[in-house]
UniProtKB/TrEMBL annotation:
Molecular function as annotated in GO: diguanylate cyclase activity
Signal peptide extent: none
One example of a Gene Ontology biological process annotation: negative regulation of bacterial-type flagellum-dependent cell motility
The protein's name: Diguanylate cyclase (GGDEF) domain-containing protein
Length: 283
């Protein structure tokens, strides 16, 4: 006589409904200033303190969903530092970093508590994104104009070399502005594209402009940028002459002519002689 083994009683299933031995994976939470759980990399830009592009996309997408469900208007501003490469070339990259930090601080201050500010174009770019929830076009323009005025009044004191300091002032920004009220898009790509086109229009118009998406003309112009558009002396005594100030088309390889003090004096003497000859010829 053989006995048939009876099956052992099975333990009750776990409360989470998953097979025993497995645990439920939590959704990543990207809090402000947090790190990505997968790679433990910061989600804010280390240099400027604003959101990096990944975190900005996350927060902006959440704001977009809220705008569609409320509903409320939504506006976007793209900000570009005019001729930022010239600042790096003339004063060095540490000076350029100081300008980026000052600009980012100004953008956060003037974007309000609900403004979502991020760096656009990676960690080496000089462009920023500002998403403004519950803000129409008029409100976004007011924010952009405040930023334009504040940036132009900033002065950044930094080192141009190990033994010389420099003050960078008078730099400007170009901005593209787009807003949506009645029809909120399904994602950010359309709004970003419209704003990017407006920013390109602002840059093509000479910089220091605010352009509205879909508009043919700039809405604001703040004047020239003396830091990079006028003849000025560098920290080491050399004289910088922006070629675009005198030529209709400046060479693409170099926008400025940098002369030693002696060469600048010689150029001044040569130009003085030429002007005297022209004056005699007109008599």
């Amino acid at each position: 006589m053989t006995a048939t083994p009876r099956p052992l009683p099975q333990p009750p299933p776990p409360a989470d409904g998953l097979p025993r031995g497995e645990t439920q994976q939590e959704e990543p939470s990207f809090g402000r200033g947090a790190c990505c759980p997968a790679c433990q990399t910061p989600l804010t830009d280390a240099l400027t303190g604003v959101l990096d592009r990944r975190r900005w996309d996350h927060d902006a997408s959440q704001a977009l969903l809220q705008a569609r469900h409320r509903p409320w208007p939504l506006a976007l501003i793209l900000v570009d530092l005019d001729r930022f490469k010239d600042i790096n070339d003339l004063y060095g990259h540490p000076a350029g970093d100081a300008v980026l930090r000052a600009a980012a601080t100004a953008l956060r201050h003037h974007s309000g508590e609900r403004g979502i500010v991020g760096r656009y174009g990676g960690h080496t770019g000089d462009e920023f994104l500002i998403l403004l929830p519950d803000t129409n076009l008029e409100g976004a323009l007011a924010v952009a104009q405040n930023i334009q005025v504040h940036i132009s009044s900033l002065s950044v004191h930094t080192m141009a070399s190990c033994d010389s300091a420099v003050t960078i002032a008078g730099w400007t920004v170009s901005m593209g502005v787009a807003a949506c009220t009645d029809l909120i898009p399904g994602d950010l790509s359309e709004l970003l594209l419209e704003c990017d086109v407006a920013l390109r229009d602002a840059k093509r118009s000479g910089g220091n402009q605010i352009c509205i998406a879909g508009s043919q003309a700039p809405t604001s112009h703040g004047g020239r940028n003396p830091a990079v558009e006028e003849v000025h002396q560098l920290a080491d005594g050399e004289v910088c002459i922006p070629l675009a100030r005198y030529l209709q088309t400046a060479p693409s390889t170099s926008r400025s002519l940098v002369l030693s003090p002696e060469s600048a004096q010689q150029l001044h003497a040569d130009l003085t002689d030429v002007l005297r000859q022209l004056a005699r010829a007109e008599r």
